[in-house]
Each structure stands twice: as C-alpha cells, then as structure tokens.
Amino acid sequence: MAGSKKLKINEVSKRSVKTLSKSNSKPSSKPYVETSVFPLSKKVNKDGNLTLVENIWADKKENQIKTIVYIDGYDLENLDVLLFSKNSLNEINYRGFAYRAYKTTSEIATAVLKVYSKIKRDLEEIVGYAIDCIGRTYLLAKKNLSEKSLELCTESYQKKVLIVEKSLEILASLNKKNLLLMDMAPKNIFYSSEKVLLSDLRGLRMSVRPRTILDSLVFYLSSLLKRGIITKEDISYLLAYYFGANYSLIEQFLKSEDIKLDDCQILEMFEQQIISAQ
Q1: Strands 65-71 vs 91-94: parallel, antiparallel or unpaired
Q2: Which pTM was predicted?
Q3: Average pLDDT, the chain
Q4: To 10 degrees, what angle do helices 210-226 and 232-245 make?
Q5: Domain ranges of the chain
Q6: What pLDDT digit, counting tens, does each position of 43-67 carry?
Q7: Three-state DSSP class for 106?
Q8: Is the distance from CB of 235 to CB of 221 less than 8 angstroms?
Q9: What is d(CA 6, CA 3) in angstroms, rounded to the nearest whole number?
Q10: How far is Cα 110 from Cα 225, in angstroms, rounded to an integer?
Q11: DSSP state of 127
Q12: What is the pLDDT of residue 14?
C-alpha cells in the first residue's frame, strides 16, 4: 500500500476483509440493580413493529423514564429507570445486558428508528429510544461485549487498515441510498472477530448532494489520519477503494460541479483535501 500513490479507481480490486483477531473480552459481571420505585401505571400501545410505553409516576425524578419506544424482539417494557454505569456516562445496564444511550432529540430518534429497519445490516444494533421525566431523549443501542472501538484499537497496522476498508465498504453502501453519517470518526467504528459496525447513528442524514456526501468522506479519512490509524501513503488507495465501490457518486459529482477530471486527478484532489483538513 505504500507503493505508487496514483492508483486508477478501476485498478483496485475489492478485497475481502480477513477474519479479525478473536476478542478475549469476558461477559460483564455488573449486577442488574432493581429499583424499589415503580410507575403507578403504564400505557402500552403497538405501532407496527414498535411498542410504545408511557409510564405514569407519582413523584417524577430525572432518571425515571416517561416514554420508551422499542423494536419488537426486545423486552424493554419494564425498563423504567435509566441506571447509568459507573464507568460510562452513556451506558446503562438492564437485566444482564448493556446498552449505549446516546443523548439526542425525539425527532432524530424517531427518524433513526424509521430508517434503521431498512438498513440495519452492518450498523449498531438499535433497540429503541427513551425519554426521561425531564424531557431528555436517549437513543438506545444494544452493546455487544466483544466489540471494540477503532479509536482505541491496539491491533496491528495491517489489521487497522482492514477494519477501515470494511468501514468504507459499509459507508459506500449507505451513500448509495443517499444516506450519510455526519461527523463519522474512529470512535464510531466498532469491530469484533466477526464484523465491523458503524455506531452512534444520531448523525444519520438523507442527502442527494454528492458534494455533501464526499465532504463527510473527507472528514472521516482525515480523522483517521489525525489519529495515526492510517498514513498519508494509504489515502490514495483508500479513496480508490471507496470510489471503486461507489463510482456513480464520482460521476454525479463531476456532473453537478461541471468539471472534467480523470481518475488520477480526482484521487489527487481529494487526497489533498484530506491532508489539509487535519
């Protein structure tokens, strides 16, 4: 990969992601802490594959859940209180499972749930969202204890590049549907021995503008470069890898911007943008 920088997009063959190293993570030993305070009553309604639970409390407190909406297959009806882990401000534990809780707005949480069922492959396992008694909304995602963040990755350089390749493949698949993940960074990439996932879907947006999608790609690769996960010598190859998976985006970009560039010039232009964005 440290060879010639000027790769033609069509010359890059798609490589399968090799099996990543097995994790030695052990199941969490944190006990589930039952609360002695329960809602006075509940209202439960179904809407397609979603269940909506409204809790009525006698004495409202900030960690109590007023509303929870969850996808079929997850038994969260009795998740009444947000019990945050002592080790993480965005992790809650419920009956032996860990969930990431991303603070957001009800509008974004609703939009993510609406889109998620159509694109959930290779994305974090979204289970629903909760609104507490003071109006804060949290998007909820089930945490797999074997998953690790690319931001804290201690794998070999070659393994990191394989993870990045897979993340670009997933990103290209999203972008083909006119979806992008805003502010995507290493902390949004989780991996295990079986798969690579994109996480924190609060930044999921619809966009039909090629420039906007490509700007998000530049931001992601520049954040990887800044963190030292990839090197400058990798950029041309990784751009070619992404463009090979989503070449129609380049065609749309050239047409919308009314510019004429060959493949090598396109790679050089975005390579410079990534390097200068650090």
Answers
A1: unpaired
A2: 0.79
A3: 86
A4: 150
A5: 9-22+147-276, 41-142
A6: 999 999 999 999 999 988 888 999 9
A7: helix
A8: yes
A9: 9
A10: 33
A11: E
A12: 42
Q: What is the mean pLDDT of residues 217-239?
A: 96
Q: Which residue's structure tokens are 């943008």?
A: 273
Range 9-22+147-276 has CATH code 1.10.510.10? yes
What span, in angstroms and rounded, lies between the C-alpha atoms of 13 and 245? Answer: 10
What secondary structure does DSSP assign to 214-239, as a single string? HHHHHHHHHHHHHTTSS-HHHHHHHH
Compute the average pLDDT of residues 21-39.
48
The pLDDT value given to residue 96: 85
- Which residues lie below 8 Å from residue 149, measured CB to CB, with a gap of 6+? 186, 187, 189, 190
Residue 8 has a pLDDT of: 55
DSSP3 helix / strand / coil % (the chain, rounded to 5): 35, 25, 40
108 closest CA partner among 73, 139, 130:
139
The number of residues making up the chain comes to 278
Longest dimension (CA), the chain: 68
Percent of the chain with pLDDT over 90: 68
- How many CA atoms within 13 Å lie on the side-chain side of 13? 2
Cα 124 to Cα 238: distance, rounded to the nearest angstrom: 23
